[in-house]
Each structure stands twice: as structure tokens, then as C-alpha cells.
Amino acid sequence: MSNKAGYIPVNKLPEESCRGIMMMRETFNGSPNSEQVERSHRDGGYTFIIQEKGKTIIEIDFQTHHIQAPAVIFIHPHQVHRVIAFEDAMICTWIITEENVRPEYLSLLEGLAPVNAMPVIPETLAVLTETAALCIKLSEKKTEILYHSILKESVNTLITLVVSQYLALFKAAEHRNRSEDITREFKTALQKNYKAAKNPSEYAAQLNLSPSYLNECVKAATGKSVSSHIQQRVVLEAKRLLYHSGKSVKEIAGHLGYDDYSYFTRLFTKVVGITPIAFREKKRE
Q: At what angle do helices 178-193 and 103-112 cross, to 10 degrees?
């Protein structure tokens, strides 16, 4: 087995992108023919794909997704992924860095992740592609005095269209209840603090709630306890590092905030069903 790097590569936005916003619309077939997208990596921003025609086969956190048009997908910056192949695909994709996303939309994105590819009806696809086409056209107007502001606002509009579709998949936004709002806030806090905060009471304190009420809300919205969400998030990152990096299990435990290497091993084994070493060997066979 060849040694892997001690980190998961992060693909930066191309130099020609506009201060943290990149957009493109192209057709592909067969292999991506790009090491950057074929290798497992993270993106340097929030990634969105509109599958207009054909199919894209992509692996996201050990799950293979067959994105068949018409569909959309959102990939969070923390998700590790790679493109496997295209089948007569036409896609529109954009990547936008955190500082360019409106705060209220950022909160929604954090609460959504992770998500699967979502089929859309032709009418919705038409709205998305027309809006994306306008964004691409605006991205070419580099002589405009407020060029970056115009592009940023137009792409944020496109983001809301995608987010709206995901919210509608589960429940209309105006019918969200208190438990769902709290759960979204908890997921946002978890993503930011999972390496340092392992106790449900720490998240409850951040949200100015009692631990029991936070757990009640999260369980009502997701069917899982707060402790389960914390453990699953830590274990997901451990899986990524075990497979995609050359770090030792002890180094990974320390990276994830565990001074007690044995405790981390027991936790991983409890959640996954096999030890960290066994997981690494199985995935790399």
C-alpha cells in the first residue's frame, strides 16, 4: 500500500475567478481527465451543481452518487469527494467562498449539509438554468464599477433557489417548527466545534438552551440524539482521514480532540462496528 499524504487536498478556486466566486457551464463525457477533480479532495468553498443533461457519477464521503438530469446537488466545503465519470453530461456548477455568502443563507446551508442529489421538475430546471445563465453573463461584465457586488448578489439569488428546493423536499419553509430551527442551529455549531466540544451540554450552552430541551428538539427533528450527532460527525472525519491521509490512528485521535487514544478507538469501534485500523485496511484493499 502506498503512503498517502498527511492531509486531504483542498482545491482552490482558479486564479481567473472573481474574488471567491467561480462559475462554469460545460459538457463532459467519459473521464474528467483532471487530476484535481479525479482525486479525493475538498473544495475551497460551497459547491453547487445543476445537472442539465446526462449523468455525473461522483463519490462523496464513501458514497457513490449517480446524478441523473434534471437534478441539483450541494456539496459542503468539509465534504470529501471526487468525480468518477460523466455520461453525455451538461452541467452548470459554481463555487462560492464563505465570505461571499449572505449570513442568513450560510446558516441554511450549514443546517442542510450533507444532502443527496435532488431531482427537479423541468419547470424548476428552466428557472435554475436561466438564472445561472444570467449569473454567467454578469461574470463576464468585468468592466462594471460594482462588478463583484453584482456577481455576488446574483449568485446568492441562485443559492436561495437551490436551498428553497431542498427545504421544500422536506417541508415548506413557512411551516418549519421550533425543533427544526434549533436543530439547524445545533448542526451549524457542531460543524464549527466538533473537534473541541464533545458534550451535549456545551452545545446547549452555546444555544442558551437546557441540554434536555436541545436533545428533545434534535431527536424530534432527526430521530437521533445530540450525542449521536456528535459521535457521527467525529467518526465521519476520522473515516476521511483514515482513508485519505497517511496519519496514524493516534495522530487522528489527537487531531479530533482526543488525548485518550484508547477511548477514541473504542468510540470508533462502537459507532462503525470495526476498529480504525480494520476500517483503513478494508477500504484500501
A: 90
Domain that holds residue 271: 178-283
pLDDT digits (tens, 9 = 90+) for 95-134: 999 999 999 999 889 888 888 999 999 999 999 999 999 9
C-alpha–C-alpha distance, residues 285 and 158, integer Å: 41
Domain final residue pick, 142, 174, 206 = 174
Exposure of 127 in the CB half-sphere (CA atoms within 13 A) = 13
Inter-axis angle of helices 147-170 and 122-139, nearest 10: 160
Contact present, 129 and 206 (Cβ < 8 Å): no
Same domain, 216 and 153: no
The answer as to whether 4 is a domain residue is no
Q: What is the pLDDT of residue 271?
A: 95
How many domains does the chain fold into?
A: 2
**Residues 252-257: what's their mean pLDDT?**
95
- What is the domain-level CATH number for residue 29? 2.60.120.280
DSSP state letter for 285? -
pTM of the model: 0.83
